Amino acid sequence: MIQSSTPDLQVIGVFNPGVIRHDGGVLLLLRVAEAPPASADAIAAPVYDVDSGRIEIREFARDSDGVDTSDPRIVVVGGRTWLTSISHLRIARSKDGIQFEIEPAPALSPATPYETFGIEDPRITFLDSTYWINYTAVSPFGIATALASTTDFRTFERHGIIFPPPNRDVTIFPEKIGGRCAALHRPMPEGIGQQAIWVASSPDMVRWGEHRFVAGARDSGWDSSKIGGGAVPFRVRTASHDGWLAIYHGVTGSPPAYSLGALLLDARDPARVIARSRAPILEPEAEYEREGFFGGVVFTCGLLAEEDRVRIYYGAADGVTAVADLSLDEILTGLSEP
Fold first, then answer.
1. Residue 338's pLDDT is what?
2. CA 146 to CA 159: how far, in whole Å?
3. Of the four, 10, 70, 130, 307, which is 20 to 30 A from 183 by CA?
4. Which residue segments constitute the domains of the chain, with CATH numbers given?
C-alpha cells in the first residue's frame, strides 16, 4: 500500500508517471491522487489553501439541487466545478524498470494559487545538464502547465506557469531545434476550434512563442474526438525514417476511450507531420484498463526508447500504473501519410 500524504486523505490512484534514467536505474515521477473517505450523503472536494499550507475539505450534499456528480472526477455545484481528488508528484526508483520502491513523501505538492486543485501528469526532459519537469497545474483559474527543474531529484526549483489556461499535455523535446527549446502543447478552445497539438519554441524554457499547429483529431477512427500529447518525443534515425517520434493520445466514442498512437515529426521542423499511426499502438483492452476510477483509458507521460524496445509507462483507468514493451520497428511500420 502507498502511504497517503496526510491522515485526512486516502490514496485512490497512482498513475500517469513521467520517466527518466537516473543514477543507473529508472526513476518514475508518479501522479498520486488522494481523496477524503467516501460518504453516502455528501461528496467532498479537497482544496489546497495557500495561506495555511494545508488541504481543506469542502463537502456538498449529493441530493442538493444543482449538484452534479455524474463524472467521478469532478463535482459541479451551481455551475462551478471542483475536483473530487487532489494530486501530488512522488518519486519511485527501480534497478530493472519493473520493480519499484516508492518514496513515502511527495517530491512536489501544490504550493501556489495556480495549483490549489492539485498538480498532475508530469513529463521529464533532460536538457543542458538539467531535468526539466513540466506538469499540469489545476485551480479555479483553470488548467495550466507549470515548470520545475532539478539536478538531483532531491531539491527542486519552481519556474511558474509556462502555458496559461486552458493548456496541458506539454512535452518538451530533449534537444534544441534551431538553437531553441521546443515543446508540443495542447490548447483547449471552447466554441470555435478544436483540442489539437501545437508546437512552440523558447530561448530559455520559460518564455514560449512561435506557436504553430501540428495535428488535430481525424474525421473518424480511434482519435476522432480529440488528441493531445503523451510522452516526451525521441529522435528516430533508421534507414527509412529520420525524425521525432511523439507518442500521443487519441479519444473517441461515448463514453470516451483513450488510446495511444504515434506521430513522426520532421527533425528540423516539428510542426510538419511526416507520418501518423493508422491504428492505435496501445488501447484499453485489459480489465484494469477498461474498469476503474475512469475506465477505458490508457494514457502516457513517459517512455524509455532503447534500440528496438519502446517501453511505455502509462496510467490505466486513472487508477494504476502499467508498462508495455513495444517494438519501434512495428510502430514505424504502422505509420502512414497524415
1. 85
2. 7
3. 307
4. 1-132+146-163 (no CATH), 166-338 (2.115.10.20)
